[in-house]
Amino acid sequence: MNALPLLAGAIALALSACSPSPAPDSTTAPAADTAPLATDDASEPALDAGAIDDPVATPVPMDADSRAADVAGCATILTSNDAMQFDADAIVIPASCASFTIHLTHVGTLPIGAMGHNVVIARAADMPAIVADGMAATPRHIKPGDTRVIAHTDMIGGGGSTSVTFDVALVREGGPYRFFCSFPGHLARMQGSLQVQ
Ligand SMILES: [Cu+2]
Predict the structure, then answer these.
(1) pTM surpassing 0.90?
(2) Which residues are near ligand 1, the ion (C-beta closer than 5 Å)?
(3) Domains observed in the chain
(4) Which among 16, 84, 112, 190 is placed 20 to 30 Å from 1, CA to CA?
């Protein structure tokens, strides 16, 4: 009986030990190796390719398998990072919710112009056009008045956080719906399913 609190405490300690502040060497990426990459394709934002495989740069667990966001009540927290990732690729909204809130945090350090993230909600079929039309609409990367956008957060950079609350009735039918980041070049890696169940 008494072992449970102790165990929970031990796990909490272990978890906190596993999420240290960024190590000093996390910023000393191999710049020489990535420079040619950045000049190869001007349409892609400069991305430190080494950061993707660098465990220090991705302190949040990022499973390769499908991972549903933890939902508490009618809200969830999505975490994003400098490696162009959300920490979940599915959001399941409880059918009992009238409105739903997505909190977005960016645990990276890169500025909004280099590694901005937002959360946009739309029909899956509308995603490519929303991103294409939002390409030039800095800094939010959503075309003003885009009626295909059901809801979206602000665009944030490293260390930022934001949230959006939307009417669940808008996504109950007519899907499939997706959540995604509309920053240029991020759609392929930063999207997931959104459904009401
Ligand atoms: Cu992004």
Answers:
(1) no
(2) 117, 181, 183, 186, 190
(3) 64-197 (2.60.40.420)
(4) 16
